[in-house]
Amino acid sequence: MSTAAAPVGPAEAVAAPAPEERKRGWTGYLLLAPAMLWLLVFFIIPMVSLVSTSLYDPSGSLETGYSMTGHIANYVDTLSEYSKQFIRSIIYAGIATLACLLLGYPLAYAIAFKAGRWKNLMLVAVIAPFFTSFLIRTLSWQLILGDQAWVADILRGIGLLGEEGHLMATPLAVVTGITYNFLPFMVLPLYASLEKIDPRLHEAGADLYASPFTTFRKVTVPLSMPGVVAGTLLTFIPAAGDYINAQLLGNPQTTMIGNVIQNLFDGGSYPEAAALSVTLMAAIVVMVLVYINRAGTEELV
Amino acid sequence: MNGRLGKWVGDHIVLLVGLLVLLYMFMPIFIVVLMSFNDPASKNSYSFDGFTWHNWLNPCEPIGMCDAVTLSIRIGFLATIGATALGTLMAFALVRHRFKGRSVANIFTFLPMASPEIVMGSSLLALFVSAGFAGTLGFWTILIAHIMFCLSFVVVTVKARLAGLDPRLEQAAMDLYANEWQTFWRVTFPLVFPGILAAALLSFSLSFDDFIITNLNSGQEVTFPMYVWGAAQRGIPPQINVIGSVMFFLALFLVISSEVFQRRRARVTA
């Protein structure tokens, strides 16, 4: 499902017309208008209306209507009540992102440099599992991690899991599910930036008496940083808002902020749900800005 | 001997790790295909109890499931047309035209991809509710939402293809007295078409698979992912895995045949 989860693809390839060759005139605006209008009406304006909903008086309801009272207390109330789920979401998403990086880097590296003629096949294999429904795949993890399944048997056999231990309905299951579900969002941008590295740079490193590991550390890693940044963002952001894994693979002690928001909407507490949504978005924007600033790359879109 | 083995392992260790990661990614697919042949002993059975063709022969047996699949296909189809059309136009504007506010346009496309689904879903719901559409949530609100989140992916995909296009091909066509219209339809469009097709396939699968945004804006309608979600609480009919397997093999077939087609064409032109 995520072939194009690689906004770091060859966006500005060599053959692209130089900016001064681009056509002037009104056609550009005409081509742009429909999509921009759609995004304005159904993405930007909804954000505004989310913020205003978050300031409604929470004593209203869908039937009686809400009154706009500038109820900033919604933010304070929801944050103090659900801070645990909020922090848990950030932690789970962070661990899953790290796990995706550790699993995704060798895979992307293997596809870029070691796969030879199997390169395209391996790329298809990365996205192939995502042709089937997200939910169905997550449900099948229930079986893989179930008490009777061989994974649990093996782990019990080698003593990593106690006789009474479970894999399902644990934080580990939730993080495994998130890692699994967002791994291609990590692999594809990583591959896109690794693939651009000239393999002769590796040879040059070796010629200059660098060990393979030093070459990797001093040449490959720095050159793949745009992919690392894009991949971690594309993994972390959806992971932080996800509630499907927490619901299907977790237990009541693993609920994430997405579960809370969805449940509040289901229960008709729109202002509180909106306030939490705005808080989540704001937290993500701040974290992303700090992160991009630290990582020092602007090659994102 | 030992040294040679060590070197072989050293050379291939990354590849081996990569293949293991791929195995991890495929594990749930094996389970989905396997369970599509399951003959469950009870409604809440979590294990493979016996082999049967029954599920494949009676895919529509669970009440409401095929209606949900049909709805998802209809929405997916319309969302794909809408998003691909709007997104392709925008990609052309971004790559080929000069206009003020380019960075705003870029931010507009990037933002939806950088927002968690729950935030996009809840903000659309907030808009629909405050505009007085709370009672009419359904087919149209789902479609609007799907076009919105597919758009950015179309723009990025088509833009990448268009940016990789050699502008000299179009200049050559113009030199050969093709007018702008002919150049576009005879040269530019066929060359960009694979990108548009990829974007359309991506849109369809994103739309067909979406749960979080749809769940908030669907009113009484039930799409296939919503059916699966509901079934997860009640006990999962094995037919769900039949649909999952069909989707998987169908998409795999499309991707591989387009790959083969492109290779063959490349060989012919070479």
Q: What would you note in describing this structure?
A:
The complex is a heterodimer of chains A (301) and B (270). Chain A has helices at residues 27-53, 73-114, 119-127, 134-144, 150-157, 171-195, 199-207, 212-223, 225-241, 244-249, 257-266, 270-295. Chain A has 301 residues and is mostly helical. Chain A has a single domain (78-295), classed as MetI-like fold. Chain B has 11 helices and no strands. Chain B has a domain at 64-236: MetI-like (MetI-like fold). Helices cover 77% and strands 0% of the residues of chain B. In chain B, α3 packs antiparallel against α8. At the A-B interface, α1, α2, α3, α4 and α6 of A face α1, α3, α4, α5 and α6 of B.
Judged by helices, strands and strand pairing, the structural class of chain B is mainly alpha
Biggest interface between chains: A-B, 105 and 104 residues
| Overall pLDDT confidence of chain A | 84
Helical residues, percent of chain A? 55-70%
| Structural Rg of chain A | 23 Å
Task: Write a concise synopsis of the structure shown.
By secondary structure, chain A is mostly helical. Chain A has 12 helices and no strands. Chain A has a single domain, classed as MetI-like (MetI-like fold, Orthogonal Bundle), CATH 1.10.3720.10.
Which descriptors would you attach to this protein?
heterodimer; A: 301 residues; mainly alpha; MetI-like fold; globular; B: 270 residues
